[in-house]
Design brief:
It comes from Pseudodesulfovibrio nedwellii. By secondary structure, the chain is mostly helical. The protein is built from 15 helices and four strands. Strand 3 and strand 4 form a beta hairpin.
Length: about 350
């Protein structure tokens, strides 16, 4: 099985599965062109635990929990659970925060950018171009000797902390389910309208999350890595899975009647092209400097990578900042301070890239 998932056909199959179930999750209740969006779903979790009070995006997304727990299960089953940490955690946290801010200016992570395109949203083309440019800047730093330093083997308990925290969120979700017409249940906040109020059945979402977590951990599926490997090494192995995701989601959207081509009127999207592009330039650069897309960071956190967990925490805190300080976009356009946040984020990333080089 390990050999299969590391093969070209294996990662294509993983991409097909993700694309298929992402479209089905939308059909079963998740927001439009958002069957799976790691950034958006982490943003919803931040709202559900009260880190921001944007009432339309508050829900503990079981898919995120499933990604981490599924990756942990796969790693233990394959004897691939490797607790490690200590590779520039503060930098990773900052990169996670700015990655989320860039993604919320665009309104989606790389996974959602592909799913938006598969649903006919042509604004996603501009976002994907920005993603490629951001990762391209990151590859420039790689060639110049950029490095966050090596992680080190650590206690098993360190590697288990993120899976345990995700399990804790799942317990909260069962202990405090949403009551009809109520925006708060116990300690959790729930959206009554907007994207946060749109979700597939809990157990369905959790099950698909677990499946994707298992498959992605074994195949090393990564959207950022797909672009990076193409630019740096002319390798298309990871890109094969990326393209398979797009194809599967496109076909399923046609079958399910979820395809609507155009720029205007797309679900949870805006048409300010420059900031769709620049938001993803920032996000792509952050993902490149941190060594993985937001999905890959969750899978690595599940297999014991404490540094990836720090990046995930950074994204969740970044979501809170984005909504508390008017940085996140909405279907009406970029937030009042989103443009400034993009420029600040790019300046911080360039500072990190230029100063953390072995040749510096």
């Amino acid at each position: 099985m390990k050999n299969f998932f590391s093969s070209r056909m294996g990662i294509i199959c993983v991409g097909l599965v993700i694309g298929l179930f992402a479209s089905l999750l939308q059909y079963w209740g998740n927001p439009g062109n958002m069957g799976i969006c790691v950034a958006c779903f982490e943003r919803d979790i931040a709202g559900a635990i009260g880190m921001h009070r944007a009432g339309v995006v508050q829900y503990i997304r079981p898919e995120i929990i499933g990604f981490v727990l599924g990756a942990m299960i796969a790693a233990f089953a394959a004897k691939d659970f490797r607790p490690r940490a200590g590779s520039a955690p503060v930098v990773r946290f900052v990169l996670g925060a700015f990655a989320m801010i860039g993604a919320l200016v665009f309104l989606g992570c790389p996974w959602r950018a592909v799913l938006r395109l598969a649903g006919g949203d042509l604004n996603a083309v501009i976002g994907l171009l920005g993603l490629v440019v951001g990762i391209g800047i990151g590859t420039f730093f790689f060639k110049q000797g950029y490095s966050l330093g090596r992680s080190h083997k650590t206690y098993t308990s360190v590697g288990l902390l993120m899976p345990l925290l995700m399990a804790g969120l799942l317990v909260l979700l069962f202990l405090y389910p949403q009551m009809t017409g109520e925006a708060k249940s116990g300690v959790l906040f729930y959206s009554l309208k907007g994207p946060g109020a749109m979700h597939a059945p809990l157990l369905v979402s959790l099950g698909i999350g677990l499946l994707v977590g298992v498959l992605a951990q074994r195949s090393r599926f990564c959207t950022m890595g797909a672009v990076r490997d193409l630019l740096l090494f002319k390798q298309v192995h990871l890109l094969s899975g990326f393209v398979a995701l797009l194809v599967a989601a496109f076909v399923m959207n046609l079958v399910l009647g979820q395809f609507n081509m155009g720029f205007e009127g797309q679900p949870v999207a805006h048409t300010q092209s420059l900031w769709n592009f620049m938001g993803m330039v920032l996000a792509g650069l952050c993902f490149a400097l941190a060594g993985g897309c937001p999905g890959r960071q969750l899978f690595m956190a599940g297999e014991g990578d404490g540094d990836a967990s720090v990046f995930v925490f950074g994204m969740i805190v970044g979501a809170a900042f984005a909504h508390n300080f008017g940085l996140a976009s909405s279907p009406k356009g970029v937030g009042p301070h989103g443009i400034a946040a993009v420029f600040i984020g790019l300046a911080v990333c360039l500072f990190i890239g230029f100063t953390m080089r072995k040749k510096a």
